[in-house]
Design goal:
Blueprint: E1 10-15, E2 24-30, E3 33-36, H1 46-56
Antiparallel strand pairs: 1-2, 2-3
C-alpha cells in the first residue's frame, strides 16, 4: 500500500466504456500513470484490503 499526498497527484475524471456513455469516475494521475478507485475500505479493515490486493494482483 502506498499513501500519497494531494500535492503528489493530479485529480481528473476517467471515462470508462463499461459504465455507459457520458459516465465518468474520479481518477488520479501519478507518475504518468492513471488510477481510479475500484473498492474502498475503512481504515479498520486494512487486513481485508491487503488480502484483496494480493489476491487481485
Amino acid at each position: 500500500m502506498h499513501i500519497l499526498k494531494a500535492d503528489q497527484v493530479q485529480y481528473c475524471r476517467v471515462i470508462s466504456p463499461d459504465l455507459g456513455e457520458g459516465k465518468t469516475l474520479p481518477g488520479v494521475l501519478y507518475m504518468d500513470k492513471l488510477f481510479f478507485k475500484v473498492l474502498s475500505y475503512h481504515k479498520d479493515q486494512v487486513t481485508k484490503a491487503i488480502r484483496y490486493g494480493r489476491q487481485a494482483f
